[in-house]
Amino acid sequence: MLSAGWLVLAVVVAVLLSMWVTFTLTRLDRLHARVDAAWAALDAQLVRRAAALQHAAESPASGLADAGRGPCEDAARAALAAQGDQDRQDAENAVGRMIAGLAGSAAELPPAAQDELREGSARVQVARRFYNDAVRDTRALRARRMPRLLHLAGHRELPRFFDIDDSVAFAPVPTKEGS
Asked: What span, in angstroms and rounded, lies between the C-alpha atoms of 164 and 168?
């Protein structure tokens, strides 16, 4: 028969193990909620940036040549209509390239459109960083041995990083006045 000391030790170990599993499960659930919230924020900023590009292209006061309007409008519409992960990333990369291309001809754009494009680009960078940080933290916890063995994530899909090239933000080239 087991002595009382061993029984107490087994109960303490069982309580500690169940507390650890509960803590890890709660943390994993919070991380998944953080990923969902960060994706919603990133999606909103991507839509805002694409809408800013579309607005700048469609505005008659934009000063863009007709040759420049078509590709900008097409890129913005494609980004707003993209559904799959890879399609969305490709469309958002196209929007980023169009916005970076507009930076060279920023003098033709009204100041309000310039501000909208600059702010939209900056907000996408920040939102993407938050989202990818949340994904990294979630994947790191799910990669540990015990959460994997105990299937603490359940049937939730492993979150994926959102990789777009947003390194070149909209920064108009300063013009020389008085020269």
From this structure: 11
